C-alpha cells in the first residue's frame, strides 16, 4: 500500500509546498519519537533528497511507498548526482526512509538478505522500535 503525495489541481508534478509540508510533518514525527538532533537532521536531509527526487519522477511514480523508496535506494542513490545529496550510506538512508514509511502508516522496508543473525536482527529491531538510541544503551547500564 502506498500513499500518493497530495496534488494541486491537475499538475503532474507534486507541488513543492505539499512536499515541504510532508517534510515538516516528518520532522515533528521524529522529534516526538525522541531522535537525537544529529539523527533528526540527517533523516530530514535524506527525506528532503527523496522528496525532491520524487517530485522529478514521472507522475505515476510519485508515491511515498516501498516501491519508490526501493527504487530510490537501489537505482537512484548509487548514481546520484543531486547537488544537495547529504548521504549515500545505504543503511542510514534506508533507516531514514523507513521512518518516513512508518510515519505514513506503511511497513518498513526489509533488507533482501538478512545482514546478521536472527538474534542480532531482533536486538536491532528493538533499537529501531524505541526510536531513542539512548534508551537502548541506558537499559544496559
Ligand atoms: Zn539524488
Oligomer: single chain
Q: What level of helicity do the residues show? A: 55-70%
- Ligands: zinc ion
Mean pLDDT: 77
Basic shape: globular
Query: How many domain regions?
Result: 2
Query: Main beta sheet, described?
Result: 2 strands, antiparallel
Total E-strand runs: 2
The helix/strand order is EHHEHHHH
User: How do the strands of the widest beta sheet line up side by side?
Assistant: 1-2
The total count of helices amounts to 6
Rg, rounded, reads: 16 Å
Strand content bin? under 5%
* Separation of the first and last Cα atoms: 40 Å
Contiguous runs where pLDDT drops below 50 for at least 5 residues: 6-13
Class computed from helices, strands and strand pairing: mainly alpha
Protein architecture, described:
Strands 1-2 form a two-stranded antiparallel sheet. The longest helix has 20 residues. About 6% of the residues have low confidence. It is built from 6 helices and 2 strands. It is mainly alpha-helical and 141 residues long. The chain has 2 domains: 88 residues; 27 residues, no CATH class. Helix 1 packs antiparallel against helix 2 and helix 2 packs across helix 4. The protein starts with a strand and ends with a helix. Bound molecules: zinc ion. Zinc ion binds next to helix 2.
SSE blueprint and pairings:
Layout (H helix, E strand, L loop, with lengths): L2 E2 L11 H17 L4 H20 L6 E2 L1 H11 L13 H14 L14 H13 L2 H6 L3
Antiparallel strand pairs: 1-2
Helix pairs in contact: 1-2, 2-4
The structure holds zinc ion.
Zinc ion binds next to helix 2.
